[in-house]
Amino acid sequence: MTRRTNGLQQERYPCIDHRPSEQFFKQAGSCGGLVGESVKANGTIANIETLMKTSKSNGYQVFISPQCYFPTDHSWQFGGTVENMMH
Fold first, then answer.
1. Which of 4, 20, 36, 48 is 20–30 Å from 14 (CA)?
2. 13 within domain boundaries
3. Under 8 Å CB-to-CB from 35, ≥6 apart: which residues?
4. Is residue 79 part of a domain?
5. Which residues have a Cβ under 8 Å from the Cβ of 80 and sit 6 or more positions away?
6. DSSP class of residue 10?
7. Buried b vs exposed e over 7-26: b needs ≥16 C-beta within 10 Å?
8. What pLDDT score was predicted for residue 50?
9. pLDDT reported for residue 73
10. 7 inside domain
11. What does the pLDDT read at residue 60?
12. 12 in a domain, yes or no?
């Protein structure tokens, strides 16, 4: 029998942190001036750490999807304010 928590099958639902980036989280990063105070005020880094530790300790798989840029990314003709700042 599969162990279930809140109706979710743990082996089917991982915790995924999508696109963590130093440019976003660090005050000195290219986006620090735009989002740095909000990241600090909301405890974003501590909350992400808590989410990952709690997920892992409850049997969920934890994955980090890295931020990767390729040379062709810089020629895109779209992007929001924060994405454009990061390039």
1. 36
2. no
3. 24, 82
4. no
5. none
6. G
7. eeeeeeeebeeeeeeebbbe
8. 92
9. 74
10. no
11. 84
12. no
Around 2, how many Cα atoms within 13 Å sit in the side-chain half-sphere? 9
Q: Which domain holds residue 36?
A: 19-68
Short-list 6, 14, 11, 3, CA closest to 64: 14
The domain tally of the chain equals 1
Count the alpha carbons within 13 Å of 82 in the hemisphere toward its beta carbon. Answer: 12
Residues 13-65 have pLDDT tens digits of 777 776 666 666 777 777 778 888 888 899 988 988 898 899 889 888 888 87
pTM passes above 0.85: no
31, burial (CB in 10 Å: exposed 0-12, middle 13-18, buried 19+): buried
